[in-house]
């Protein structure tokens, strides 16, 4: 983002916070929605998580030090909120995260907001078989084209570990697609 330091100052300044936050919403709402949606799968759940994400951002913007890019910080919050949401929902339903993920994928065909074809559905099923970290890395690289450098800021993991996770995820997805 151009002029990010000035934008952050506007977000943190009480007299300009509201206007700057509306700009922030316009800039990132759709990108973060799709990032969250890939993690939680359901449209309604994604809306809830996105709302929680922006509430957390609004409440904590004053604590943002600028050690990372603003969008990396936003993605980190959205990712953490998504994982927390999934864990709580699985606990509430008394099932594992994997079972919850499989249920969500199985319900995807009935989701009026899902516009994918049979191949997209098959890919989503393949992604759902991956461990959570590999899902995150695959989605961020494959769908969002996020660099390993930016991903390492968001997920607070080394670039080497992320590259390895992505490579393993791709192999597992290829195997799943070949076998199914």
UniProtKB/TrEMBL annotation:
Keywords associated with the record: DNA-binding, Sigma factor, Transcription, Transcription regulation
Domain RNA polymerase sigma factor 70 region 4 type: start-end pairs: 121-173
Gene Ontology molecular function terms on file: DNA binding; sigma factor activity
Entry's Gene Ontology BP terms: DNA-templated transcription initiation
Residue stretches making up the RNA polymerase sigma-70 region domain: 25-92
Record family assignment: Belongs to the sigma-70 factor family. ECF subfamily.
The name this protein goes by in its record: RNA polymerase sigma factor
Source organism of the structure: Winogradskyella aurantia
């Amino acid at each position: 983002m151009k002029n990010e330091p000035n934008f952050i100052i506007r977000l943190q300044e009480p007299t300009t916070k509201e206007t700057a936050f509306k700009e922030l919403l316009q800039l990132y709402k759709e990108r973060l929605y799709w990032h969250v949606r890939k993690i939680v799968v359901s449209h309604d759940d994604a809306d809830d998580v996105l709302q929680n994400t922006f509430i957390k951002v609004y409440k904590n913007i004053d604590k943002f030090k600028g050690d990372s890019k603003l969008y990396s910080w936003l993605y980190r919050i959205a990712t953490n909120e998504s994982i927390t949401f999934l864990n709580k929902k699985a606990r509430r339903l008394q099932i594992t995260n994997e079972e919850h993920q499989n249920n969500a994928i199985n319900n995807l065909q009935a989701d009026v907001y899902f516009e994918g074809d049979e191949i997209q559905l098959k890919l989503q099923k393949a992604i759902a078989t991956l461990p959570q970290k590999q899902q995150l890395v695959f989605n961020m690289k494959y769908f969002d084209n996020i660099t390993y450098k930016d991903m390492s800021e968001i997920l607070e993991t080394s670039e080497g570990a992320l590259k390895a996770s992505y490579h393993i995820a791709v192999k597992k997805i290829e195997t799943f697609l070949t076998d199914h």
